[in-house]
Amino acid sequence: TQGQVITCKAAVAYEPNKPLVIEDVQVAPPQAGEVRIKIHFTALCHTDAYTWSGKDPEGLFPCILGHEAAGIVESVGEGVTEVQPGDHVIPCYQAECRECKFCKSGKTNLCGKVRTATGAGVMMNDRKSRFSINGKPIYHFMGTSTFSQFTVVHDVSVAKIDPQAPLDKVCLLGCGVPTGLGAVWNTAKVEPGAIVAIFGLGTVGLAVAEGAKSAGASRIIGVDIDSKKFDVAKNFGVTEFVNPKDYNKAIQQVLVDLTDGGVDYSFECIGNVSVMRAALECCHKGWGTSVIIGVAASGQEISTRPFQLVTGRVWKGTAFGGFKSRSQVPWLVDKYMKKEIKIDEYITHNLTLGEINSAFDLMHGGGCLRCVLKM
Ligand code: NAD
Ligand code: AHE
Ligand code: ZN
């Protein structure tokens, strides 16, 4: 198949919110600096649903969504040296070129090399898509497009992993789990004894809990409007639960009262701008730090009284938990293999690519953390 167009199945999003359609798509061979990957397993993340909903200002249609996956390299384009056919890999929506201003800064995991192309749904080389149906181009998504049996990505977006690692599990290391762990370890740098509040106990929030537990947090307070989340959250390290619906005062006040003045760290894992405000305002005066992880819809804005910051609270955000993708995803895979981090516990459902619309229904229905699709 090397150098040839591959025809395979992919789930195509033609329009916002219209069911995905399983189509035969043509996947062009990788050009210079590109890698074609046979995706073996992909999970669904709420960011896929967000873009599909039409609320993402970068959303383009028709496109192939998906960004939490694992597979095996099928072929590589000219000049690609770090991976070869047969390598087991995780496609990474956050690239790491090690050459750009961002990568060299030592201050961020964001990479500038291919970001304009991935945001425009095309490849860097010729600003065109490698996906088409009968000659009509289909846009890429987040530089990954893993809802396809084959995808083409930039070489700076490919993490080569241990070939022994089970692809149906480590696919989760493409997004949600590293995001939560890294928000604690890299962005907030939670220290032993700290009091932590987590808003939203989906996969991202539970990974925050896991990270906070391993960092030695003394109290991990889980906040969710769905009380069914509380039972499972205990297994990830959450020590106390608060359902905002049980109180008739603002949730920030509830947390301040529970913690003698506020939490040391809070994490917003929902994508709701009023919760983001509450997450900042439940932080302790003088030092409390709040990390935004959730992705909010186009047009939404955060606000608070500047006095909240004047009096020492800190507002931060994180993308992919601050992890350098190509360097650190393989390290996370190794940590999973050594049983130092969980993955299996986040997988509540297993379906096939053909069942992807039901998988999204499950995701919206509650009771689902991650659903992994076999391709
Ligand atoms: P999820 O939907 O599984 O979890 C969200 C949780 O929040 C649910 O348990 C829900 O019951 C709860 N919730 C909803 N409204 C609430 C409210 N008002 N108060 C308290 N709880 C509430 O989602 P997920 O997959 O864990 O992702 C969480 C968010 O993180 C999404 O916005 C996703 O797009 C974003 N995300 C960001 C990054 C990043 O790099 N920054 C990476 C992955 C995901
Ligand atoms: N396109 C959206 C932004 C979406 C967003 O913030 N994405 C996160 C990852 S979410 C993964 O589930 C991210 O990493 N952002 C940094 C980046 O470079 O995209 C919008 O609002 O425009
Ligand atoms: Zn995601």
From TrEMBL:
Its cofactor is Zn(2+). Coiled coil: none annotated. Its main location: cytoplasm. It is an enzyme of class 1 (oxidoreductase). One of its GO terms (cellular component) is cytosol. Keywords: Cytoplasm, Metal-binding, NAD, Oxidoreductase, Zinc. Residues 204-332 form the Alcohol dehydrogenase-like C-terminal domain. It comes from the Eukaryota. It holds the Pfam family ADH_zinc_N. Residues 32-123 form the Alcohol dehydrogenase-like N-terminal domain. It is found in: Cytoplasm. It catalyses: S-(hydroxymethyl)glutathione + NADP(+) = S-formylglutathione + NADPH + H(+); S-(hydroxymethyl)glutathione + NAD(+) = S-formylglutathione + NADH + H(+); a primary alcohol + NAD(+) = an aldehyde + NADH + H(+); a secondary alcohol + NAD(+) = a ketone + NADH + H(+). GO terms for biological process: formaldehyde catabolic process. GO terms for molecular function: alcohol dehydrogenase (NAD+) activity; S-(hydroxymethyl)glutathione dehydrogenase [NAD(P)+] activity; zinc ion binding. Homodimer. Belongs to the zinc-containing alcohol dehydrogenase family. Class-III subfamily. This is S-(hydroxymethyl)glutathione dehydrogenase. It comes from Herrania umbratica. The gene is LOC110413568.
